[in-house]
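Support request from a user on the community tier.

User writes: "When I paste my C-alpha coordinates into the form, the page sometimes reloads and wipes my input. The last time it worked, I copied everything first. Here is what I submitted, just in case something in the input itself triggers the reload:"
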Protein backbone atom coordinates (compact mmCIF):
# COMPACT_ATOMS: atom_id res chain seq x y z
CA UNK A 1 0.00 0.00 0.00
CA UNK A 2 1.27 3.43 -0.95
CA UNK A 3 2.26 5.68 1.93
CA UNK A 4 0.15 8.84 1.98
CA UNK A 5 1.59 12.28 2.53
CA UNK A 6 -0.04 15.55 3.56
CA UNK A 7 0.05 16.71 -0.04
CA UNK A 8 -1.97 13.70 -1.22
CA UNK A 9 -5.03 15.52 0.10
CA UNK A 10 -4.60 18.78 -1.81
CA UNK A 11 -7.60 17.86 -3.98
CA UNK A 12 -9.61 19.26 -1.05
CA UNK A 13 -7.95 22.64 -1.73
CA UNK A 14 -9.45 22.66 -5.23
CA UNK A 15 -12.97 22.08 -3.92
CA UNK A 16 -12.45 24.62 -1.13
CA UNK A 17 -11.22 27.23 -3.63
CA UNK A 18 -14.31 26.96 -5.80
CA UNK A 19 -16.62 26.80 -2.80
CA UNK A 20 -15.19 29.93 -1.21
CA UNK A 21 -15.24 31.80 -4.52
CA UNK A 22 -18.85 30.82 -5.08
CA UNK A 23 -19.87 32.69 -1.94
CA UNK A 24 -17.27 35.49 -1.98
CA UNK A 25 -15.51 36.22 -5.23
CA UNK A 26 -12.57 37.88 -3.45
CA UNK A 27 -11.38 34.40 -2.47
CA UNK A 28 -10.52 33.96 -6.16
CA UNK A 29 -7.22 35.70 -5.39
CA UNK A 30 -6.15 32.45 -3.71
CA UNK A 31 -5.92 31.05 -7.23
CA UNK A 32 -2.70 33.02 -7.65
CA UNK A 33 -1.09 30.34 -5.49
CA UNK A 34 -1.75 27.88 -8.31
CA UNK A 35 -0.14 30.29 -10.77
CA UNK A 36 2.91 31.33 -8.77
CA UNK A 37 3.84 28.20 -6.81
CA UNK A 38 4.44 25.95 -9.85
CA UNK A 39 6.57 28.65 -11.45
CA UNK A 40 8.58 29.21 -8.28
CA UNK A 41 9.18 25.48 -7.81
CA UNK A 42 10.30 25.15 -11.42
CA UNK A 43 12.53 28.24 -11.32
CA UNK A 44 14.17 27.55 -7.97
CA UNK A 45 13.86 23.76 -7.83
CA UNK A 46 14.34 22.99 -11.49
CA UNK A 47 11.62 20.35 -11.39
CA UNK A 48 7.92 19.74 -11.81
CA UNK A 49 7.29 19.03 -8.12
CA UNK A 50 4.06 20.99 -8.23
CA UNK A 51 2.59 18.92 -11.07
CA UNK A 52 3.86 15.64 -9.65
CA UNK A 53 2.93 16.17 -6.00
CA UNK A 54 1.07 19.36 -5.15
CA UNK A 55 -1.49 19.95 -7.90
CA UNK A 56 -4.90 19.70 -6.28
CA UNK A 57 -6.64 19.87 -9.65
CA UNK A 58 -4.76 16.83 -10.98
CA UNK A 59 -5.51 14.96 -7.76
CA UNK A 60 -9.19 15.87 -8.00
CA UNK A 61 -9.35 14.64 -11.60
CA UNK A 62 -7.66 11.40 -10.54
CA UNK A 63 -10.15 10.87 -7.70
CA UNK A 64 -13.23 11.69 -9.79
CA UNK A 65 -11.88 9.90 -12.84
CA UNK A 66 -11.69 6.55 -11.10
CA UNK A 67 -15.50 6.70 -10.93
CA UNK A 68 -16.57 8.48 -14.15
CA UNK A 69 -13.73 8.37 -16.70
CA UNK A 70 -14.16 6.23 -19.80
CA UNK A 71 -10.39 5.51 -19.53
CA UNK A 72 -9.94 5.82 -23.27
CA UNK A 73 -6.50 6.55 -24.68
CA UNK A 74 -5.67 10.25 -24.80
CA UNK A 75 -5.56 11.43 -28.43
CA UNK A 76 -2.01 11.97 -29.67
CA UNK A 77 -2.68 15.55 -30.76
CA UNK A 78 -3.21 16.54 -27.09
CA UNK A 79 0.41 15.52 -26.41
CA UNK A 80 1.78 17.42 -29.40
CA UNK A 81 3.96 20.49 -28.88
CA UNK A 82 1.81 22.42 -31.33
CA UNK A 83 -1.37 21.84 -29.35
CA UNK A 84 0.22 22.30 -25.92
CA UNK A 85 2.03 25.52 -26.83
CA UNK A 86 -0.95 26.73 -28.84
CA UNK A 87 -3.22 26.22 -25.84
CA UNK A 88 -0.64 27.89 -23.58
CA UNK A 89 -0.51 30.86 -25.96
CA UNK A 90 -4.31 31.09 -26.06
CA UNK A 91 -4.44 30.83 -22.26
CA UNK A 92 -1.82 33.56 -21.83
CA UNK A 93 -3.66 35.85 -24.25
CA UNK A 94 -6.82 35.35 -22.19
CA UNK A 95 -4.85 36.03 -19.00
CA UNK A 96 -3.40 39.17 -20.57
CA UNK A 97 -6.89 40.27 -21.60
CA UNK A 98 -8.07 39.71 -18.03
CA UNK A 99 -5.22 41.91 -16.75
CA UNK A 100 -6.04 44.57 -19.34
CA UNK A 101 -9.74 44.55 -18.34
CA UNK A 102 -8.65 44.87 -14.70
CA UNK A 103 -6.49 47.84 -15.66
CA UNK A 104 -9.43 49.48 -17.47
CA UNK A 105 -11.58 49.15 -14.35
CA UNK A 106 -8.75 50.54 -12.19
CA UNK A 107 -8.32 53.48 -14.58
CA UNK A 108 -12.05 54.18 -14.55
CA UNK A 109 -12.47 53.47 -18.28
CA UNK A 110 -14.74 50.46 -17.66
CA UNK A 111 -17.21 49.66 -14.93
CA UNK A 112 -17.13 46.48 -12.90
CA UNK A 113 -19.29 43.72 -14.33
CA UNK A 114 -20.11 41.13 -11.72
CA UNK A 115 -20.05 38.13 -14.02
CA UNK A 116 -18.13 34.92 -14.46
CA UNK A 117 -17.31 34.11 -18.06
CA UNK A 118 -17.27 30.40 -18.86
CA UNK A 119 -15.21 29.23 -21.82
CA UNK A 120 -14.29 32.88 -22.41
CA UNK A 121 -17.72 33.40 -24.00
CA UNK A 122 -20.72 32.69 -21.79
CA UNK A 123 -21.46 35.27 -19.10
CA UNK A 124 -22.96 33.96 -15.87
CA UNK A 125 -24.26 36.59 -13.40
CA UNK A 126 -22.41 36.21 -10.11
CA UNK A 127 -23.59 39.29 -8.21
CA UNK A 128 -24.38 37.44 -4.97
CA UNK A 129 -20.67 36.70 -4.48
CA UNK A 130 -19.56 40.32 -4.20
CA UNK A 131 -20.84 43.21 -2.13
CA UNK A 132 -20.01 46.41 -3.98
CA UNK A 133 -17.93 48.85 -1.99
CA UNK A 134 -16.15 46.25 0.13
CA UNK A 135 -13.00 46.69 -1.92
CA UNK A 136 -11.69 48.61 -4.91
CA UNK A 137 -13.52 47.67 -8.13
CA UNK A 138 -10.29 46.57 -9.85
CA UNK A 139 -9.64 44.03 -7.09
CA UNK A 140 -13.11 42.60 -7.65
CA UNK A 141 -12.60 42.66 -11.45
CA UNK A 142 -9.41 40.63 -11.12
CA UNK A 143 -11.27 38.22 -8.84
CA UNK A 144 -14.07 37.70 -11.36
CA UNK A 145 -11.56 37.24 -14.18
CA UNK A 146 -9.32 34.80 -12.32
CA UNK A 147 -12.26 32.76 -11.05
CA UNK A 148 -13.58 32.62 -14.63
CA UNK A 149 -10.26 31.27 -15.89
CA UNK A 150 -9.94 28.75 -13.09
CA UNK A 151 -13.51 27.54 -13.49
CA UNK A 152 -13.25 27.32 -17.28
CA UNK A 153 -9.99 25.38 -17.18
CA UNK A 154 -11.43 23.03 -14.56
CA UNK A 155 -14.50 22.42 -16.72
CA UNK A 156 -12.25 21.66 -19.71
CA UNK A 157 -10.31 19.27 -17.48
CA UNK A 158 -13.51 17.58 -16.32
CA UNK A 159 -14.70 17.13 -19.90
CA UNK A 160 -11.45 15.49 -21.07
CA UNK A 161 -11.36 13.48 -17.81
CA UNK A 162 -14.73 11.93 -18.67
CA UNK A 163 -13.89 11.39 -22.36
CA UNK A 164 -10.38 10.00 -21.90
CA UNK A 165 -8.19 9.25 -18.88
CA UNK A 166 -8.59 10.95 -15.49
CA UNK A 167 -5.56 13.25 -15.79
CA UNK A 168 -5.80 14.04 -19.50
CA UNK A 169 -5.89 17.75 -18.61
CA UNK A 170 -2.34 17.39 -17.31
CA UNK A 171 -1.07 16.61 -20.83
CA UNK A 172 -1.83 20.16 -22.02
CA UNK A 173 -2.21 22.15 -18.78
CA UNK A 174 -0.76 25.64 -19.37
CA UNK A 175 1.03 25.65 -16.00
CA UNK A 176 2.51 22.23 -16.69
CA UNK A 177 3.63 23.41 -20.11
CA UNK A 178 5.30 26.50 -18.63
CA UNK A 179 7.01 24.58 -15.81
CA UNK A 180 8.23 21.97 -18.28
CA UNK A 181 9.71 24.74 -20.43
CA UNK A 182 11.39 26.31 -17.40
CA UNK A 183 12.84 22.96 -16.36
CA UNK A 184 14.21 22.35 -19.86
CA UNK A 185 15.84 25.79 -19.87
CA UNK A 186 17.36 25.20 -16.44
CA UNK A 187 18.71 21.82 -17.52
CA UNK A 188 20.69 23.48 -20.33
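"...and here is what came back when it finally went through:"
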Amino acid sequence: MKKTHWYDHLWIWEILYFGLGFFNILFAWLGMIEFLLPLMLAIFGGNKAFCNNFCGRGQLFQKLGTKVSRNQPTPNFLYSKGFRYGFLTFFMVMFGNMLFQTYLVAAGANSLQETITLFWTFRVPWDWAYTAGTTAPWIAKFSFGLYSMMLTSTLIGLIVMVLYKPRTWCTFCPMGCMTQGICKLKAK
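Agent notes: The reload is a front-end session timeout and is unrelated to the input. The first strand starts at residue 115 and ends at 118. Residues 81-107 form the longest helix (27 residues). Escalated to web team.
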